[in-house]
Amino acid sequence: MKVAIAGAGAVGRSIARELLVNSHDVTLFERKADHIDPDSVAGAKWILADACELAKLEDAQLQTFDVMIAATGDDKANLVVSLLAKTEFAINRVVARVNDPRNEWLFGEDWGVDVAVSTPRLLASLVEEAVSVGDLVRLMTFRQGQANLVELTLPSNTPMAGKPVRKLELPRDVALVTILRGGRVIVPQSDDPIEGGDELIFIAPSEAEPALYDAMQITR
């Protein structure tokens, strides 16, 4: 993919390095000349520009990019970048960093954001995940709550043990995407059995969550 990142601070540079490892085409936008350091992210393109300025994005032909990541340390700037990317350049996927959790409610489709990433929220989710067996934990919300990435840890005595994935009667629009088992990451195949203690990762709309409990035979 062709990815634009607004903000070349520690966060932006770290994201760029990860994407480059996976062979994506990465361009960093940085408005401060003294922060431009091509050697710090070998392989990335650098543009000295304020990504909140429409003319600068036009000069960079942002419409040719697949993804915009608003990764600055300023929530106002991240919202402006997201809105411009979506409304002016029709970027397919816009990911925005939320610095202050109190602003998280703003980071939705009205501001062009497809995925909002809040570090405090993710850390809280990981804490909840560590202590909740039999509870759904929301790891991430997509499309302003229309779909969630959720985790469900099965109890050791689950009646689902031994049942193959193909026989799971999941609610409509719910998909099992990953099984975490003993440090392994398993991409579920139809014949893979479910085991007690499995951490199951689903994509699910909010309204389907009660039915997902029932489908996995979890007593609440």
Automatic annotation (TrEMBL):
<dbReference type="InterPro" id="IPR036291">
    <property type="entry name" value="NAD(P)-bd_dom_sf"/>
</dbReference>
<dbReference type="GO" id="GO:0015079">
    <property type="term" value="F:potassium ion transmembrane transporter activity"/>
</dbReference>
<feature type="domain" description="RCK N-terminal">
    <location>
        <begin position="1"/>
        <end position="117"/>
    </location>
</feature>
<dbReference type="InterPro" id="IPR050721">
    <property type="entry name" value="Trk_Ktr_HKT_K-transport"/>
</dbReference>
<dbReference type="InterPro" id="IPR036721">
    <property type="entry name" value="RCK_C_sf"/>
</dbReference>
<keyword id="KW-0633">Potassium transport</keyword>
<keyword id="KW-0630">Potassium</keyword>
<dbReference type="Pfam" id="PF02080">
    <property type="entry name" value="TrkA_C"/>
</dbReference>
<dbReference type="InterPro" id="IPR003148">
    <property type="entry name" value="RCK_N"/>
</dbReference>
<keyword id="KW-0406">Ion transport</keyword>
<dbReference type="InterPro" id="IPR006036">
    <property type="entry name" value="K_uptake_TrkA"/>
</dbReference>
<feature type="domain" description="RCK C-terminal">
    <location>
        <begin position="137"/>
        <end position="218"/>
    </location>
</feature>
<dbReference type="InterPro" id="IPR006037">
    <property type="entry name" value="RCK_C"/>
</dbReference>
<dbReference type="GO" id="GO:0005886">
    <property type="term" value="C:plasma membrane"/>
</dbReference>
<keyword id="KW-0813">Transport</keyword>
<keyword id="KW-0520">NAD</keyword>
<dbReference type="Pfam" id="PF02254">
    <property type="entry name" value="TrkA_N"/>
</dbReference>
<protein>
    <recommendedName>
        <fullName>Trk system potassium uptake protein TrkA</fullName>
    </recommendedName>
</protein>
